[in-house]
Amino acid sequence: TYDLPKREYITLNIDYKQCGIGGDVPAMAMLHKIYKLKGNEDYTYTFRIVGYSKEKGDFSSLFKKVFPLE
């Protein structure tokens, strides 16, 4: 389920750095060289967290929306 229990506050931790993607074995960190992130380069990314309630309609419709960057 995607529902979080009702609480006064919820903590969400988002990892800042990753090591890469592209391994053939999910349980092992064996990445293909072309997918490894280089430690001596700067990387940037953005993400948006959007609140949702049932009154906003179908949850899957949020995946099709493009929200403006502010």
Automatic annotation (TrEMBL):
Domain called Beta galactosidase small chain/: residue spans: 1-49
One GO term (biological process): carbohydrate metabolic process
GO CC field: beta-galactosidase complex
GO molecular function: beta-galactosidase activity; carbohydrate binding
Designated name of the protein: Beta galactosidase small chain/ domain-containing protein
Organism (species): marine sediment metagenome
